[in-house]
Amino acid sequence: MEEILIIIKYAFLGALQGFTEPIPISSSGHLVLVQEFLGIDVAKGDFSFEVLMNFASLLAVLLIYRDDLIRLVKNGSQYIVKKDPNDKNDFLFIVYLIIGTIPAGVIGIVLEDTISSYFRGIAPIGGALLVTGIALWLIRNLKGTKGDRGLTVKDALIVGCAQAVALIPGISRSGATIVAAMGIGMKRETALRFSFLLYIPVSLGAIVLKVGDMQLGDMLIPYIVAFVMSLLLSYFSLKWFMGIMERGNLKYFAYYCFIVGPLVLVLAQFT
């Protein structure tokens, strides 16, 4: 019975992580809140769980954006060899993704432990959700004019810095990058694409850094169940979110953050 309960627990955590990863409400923040309020926990520093859930969400992003990735790699490599002007924009898009990765990569390596220790507990998550809600509300009606061909190095750095801000627990990575991208004038479609393609190198980097600490042991089955749940929910959640972005309904996530953020702040006073 205990083994079944463990599998159910990890299935729930995998589903929660998968569903919340693509949408702007912070997957890491929600995992902390669930562990705190429902007593469903993963041991602190469980790198095996972190790596597998990260990898599951990464696979979902790769599946959904596979056509874009194939085109970028093909045209970008052709531009390096042939200098065909028709391939230049895809080559530059890759360059901008690399530039956008730098802030989070550097700050993550240097300050991740400091950030985690400073923003400890659930109160900072409540505050971060409020900040996320305000940011989403401010850009809720923006449509933007910049497409893939209108991006600059400055745009890439601004979105990259926003991704670095998401190292703070409770700040959504997708939310921060999409808010920044739309705030500097990107079209919704371009902002969404740039945000999730930017997720790929950062996610790969995190996996590479932590994969050496993985220890499956007797948790193999619960981890596999969590991985499958996270993969499925990440895929369908991102597809759902793409529809929401297309319709310009980010305000609903702002409403959610305005409700949950203050509630967490109040509950934090009693824990």
From TrEMBL:
Record has Signal as a keyword: no
Segments passing through the bilayer: 91-111, 117-139, 191-209, 221-241, 253-270
Record keywords: Antibiotic resistance, Cell membrane, Cell shape, Cell wall biogenesis/degradation, Hydrolase, Membrane, Peptidoglycan synthesis, Transmembrane, Transmembrane helix
Annotated compartments: Cell membrane
Predominant place of localization: membrane
Catalytic activity: di-trans,octa-cis-undecaprenyl diphosphate + H2O = di-trans,octa-cis-undecaprenyl phosphate + phosphate + H(+)
Mode of membrane association: Multi-pass membrane protein
Secretion signal span: none
Keyword Nucleus included in the entry's annotation: no
Entries under Pfam families matching the protein: BacA
EC number: 3.6.1.27
Superkingdom, taxonomy of origin: Bacteria
UniProt xrefs under InterPro entries: UppP (IPR003824)
Function statement: Catalyzes the dephosphorylation of undecaprenyl diphosphate (UPP). Confers resistance to bacitracin.
Note: Bacitracin is thought to be involved in the inhibition of peptidoglycan synthesis by sequestering undecaprenyl diphosphate, thereby reducing the pool of lipid carrier available.
Listed PANTHER family: UNDECAPRENYL-DIPHOSPHATASE
Protein family (similarity comment): Belongs to the UppP family.
Protein name as it appears in the record: Undecaprenyl-diphosphatase
Organism lineage string: Bacteria, Bacillati, Bacillota, Bacilli, Bacillales
